[in-house]
């Protein structure tokens, strides 16, 4: 009876389709010299801009294979630059980014949704100052073509944007009158990969 049951189960298994995970999309190499990470936050009602000098972006992307695509970003919080040395030192302190305890801010994608041929949505986790929250990054493809200066490579240019509420991550005090709560983050990226 055990042998018969085994034979029946073996036969049934042939009718059950195997579920395959999507293959990873090709990896793109970031060109830091033609890329940037910046943020905008209101100070006394006026937009204040800043950025980060050091960051890494690990991107796997294929418009035809969004399920195999991924976006992982690591930002060196101590590389903050608001064009004011004194302010930058303040922002590195415990009441803002506390870079000694939390040197990096990260985004790790978990899902990709194709909105159009040029727009994709990466859903994942944003971690700032040790606090992790769900976040979405809008990913716009500006150019995806043969590299004009390297015929054996492809060129990818993108604009990626997301938003965060700084108080939810313990960045700055709870007062939102002098410093706004909403922070807009923008990444302009240029990538290349072998054909």
For this entry, give a set of tags.
disordered N terminus, globular, Lipocalin, about 200 residues, 11 strands, mainly beta
Description:
With 195 residues, the protein is mainly β. The protein has one domain (22-194): Lipid/polyisoprenoid-binding, YceI-like (Lipocalin, Beta Barrel), CATH 2.40.128. It has 2 helices and 11 strands. The protein has helices at 2-13, 85-91, and strands at 27-30, 36-43, 46-52, 55-60, 70-76, 80-81, 104-114, 119-128, 131-146, 153-165, 179-194. A hairpin with a 2-residue loop joins strand 8 (119-128) and strand 9. The longest helix has 12 residues, at 2-13. The chain is globular. Residues 1-19 have low confidence and may be disordered.
Brief write-up:
The protein is mainly beta and 195 residues long. It has one domain (22-194): Beta Barrel (Lipocalin), CATH 2.40.128.110.
């Amino acid at each position: 009876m055990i042998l018969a049951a085994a034979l029946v189960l073996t036969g049934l298994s042939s009718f059950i389709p195997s579920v395959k995970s999507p293959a990873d999309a090709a990896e793109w190499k970031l060109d830091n010299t033609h890329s940037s990470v910046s943020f905008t936050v209101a100070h006394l009602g006026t937009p204040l801009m800043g950025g980060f000098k050091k960051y890494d972006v690990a991107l796997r992307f294929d418009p035809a294979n969004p399920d195999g695509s991924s976006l992982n970003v690591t930002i060196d919080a101590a590389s903050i630059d608001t064009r004011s040395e004194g302010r930058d030192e303040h922002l590195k302190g415990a009441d803002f980014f506390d870079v000694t305890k939390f040197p990096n801010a990260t985004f790790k994608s978990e899902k990709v949704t194709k909105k159009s041929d040029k727009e994709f949505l990466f859903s994942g986790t944003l971690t700032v100052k040790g606090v992790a929250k769900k976040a979405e990054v809008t990913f716009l493809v500006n150019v995806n073509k043969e590299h004009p200066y390297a015929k054996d490579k492809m060129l990818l240019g993108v604009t990626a944007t997301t938003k965060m509420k700084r108080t939810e991550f313990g960045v700055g005090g709870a007062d939102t009158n002098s410093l706004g709560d909403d922070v807009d983050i923008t990444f302009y990226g240029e990538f290349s990969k072998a054909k």
